[in-house]
Design brief:
Layout (H helix, E strand, L loop, with lengths): L8 H4 L19 E4 L6 E4 L11 H5 L5 E5 L10 H13 L1 H9 L2 E4 L2 H4 L11 H11 L16 E5 L9 E5 L14 H12 L5 E5 L20 H16 L8
Parallel strand pairs: 1-5, 2-3, 3-4, 6-7
Antiparallel strand pairs: 5-6
Helix pairs in contact: 3-6
Length: about 250
């Protein structure tokens, strides 16, 4: 089966991105999870103020999603202490509308500034590891889950592929807070991981989750977006272009 394929640095030199090195990919412990579950309907959401009504969850449930993906600002807990942030997460978990939804629909996700630390916060936030622990608790991750012992919450999931006609969905979720500093969003380790994810992707459909807008040119007045990080966004576009123009057979898993 033809898969989207990302080439290593040997081909990258011919495509104008020789200033990036992908010849020695840094992957570290595996952050990819495989699930036999097939996905027919995915629902995504963000910017959820836990102090407001949560009566919309049953309406989402009526769509019968196979997966819910949090894309950040899952709660608003600006400048909260680690303990206070955990309390705010818990308040949402105990909301009867959300609790019913979470009991029936599988969930994965990432954070953004308001649930990570505070508005437009970055990797200099001193309690970011405690914030990560609270995030893991919110998603009810097992005690031995990789995100409980690693830096940052970037991760990926491969769904489906069990049957001959079953298409695989490769969901890649980025962390735009833990490593953010100055003109950099992902940090070099996460960039290398992302390249490796694309290189070895078994997905028929690849989805990448970002907690801030990728294509919008409108930034400023407190609104963040990849457009403010032009070198980072160009690097992302070049990665995706390489993936688009070089179809090949990826390794099977």
């Amino acid at each position: 089966m033809d898969r989207r394929f990302f080439v290593k640095s040997s081909m990258a030199f011919g495509l104008g991105i020789s200033h990036y090195s992908f010849g020695s990919l840094i992957t570290g412990p595996s952050r990819r999870t495989y699930a036999a579950q097939s996905l027919n309907r995915i629902c995504l959401g963000s910017c959820n103020d836990q102090d407001l009504s949560q009566e919309f969850w049953p309406k989402i449930a009526q769509r019968n999603p196979d997966l819910w993906v949090w894309l950040g600002d899952n709660i608003y807990a600006d400048y909260a202490s680690p303990e206070e942030r955990q309390v705010e997460y818990f308040a949402l978990q105990r909301n009867r509308y959300y609790e019913s939804f979470a009991e029936t629909v599988p969930m994965v996700g990432i954070w953004d500034d308001h649930d990570f630390a505070y508005d437009n916060s970055d990797g200099n936030y001193q309690d970011k590891d405690q914030s990560q622990e609270a995030f893991c608790n919110f998603l009810r991750l097992p005690s031995q889950h990789i995100l409980r012992s690693s830096q940052g919450i970037y991760q990926s999931f491969v769904y489906g592929g069990a049957g001959a006609m079953d298409r695989r969905v490769h969901l890649i979720l980025l962390d735009l807070r833990y490593f953010k500093e100055g003109d950099h969003l992902l940090g070099e380790g996460q960039w290398q991981w992302l390249a490796n994810e694309l290189l070895t992707s078994p997905g028929d459909l690849i989805m990448i989750g970002s907690s801030i807008a990728v294509l919008s040119e409108f930034t400023g007045f407190g609104l963040e977006g990849w457009a403010s990080y032009k070198a980072e966004r160009q690097r992302l576009f070049e990665l995706l272009e390489l993936c688009r123009v070089t179809p090949n057979k990826c390794p099977t898993h």
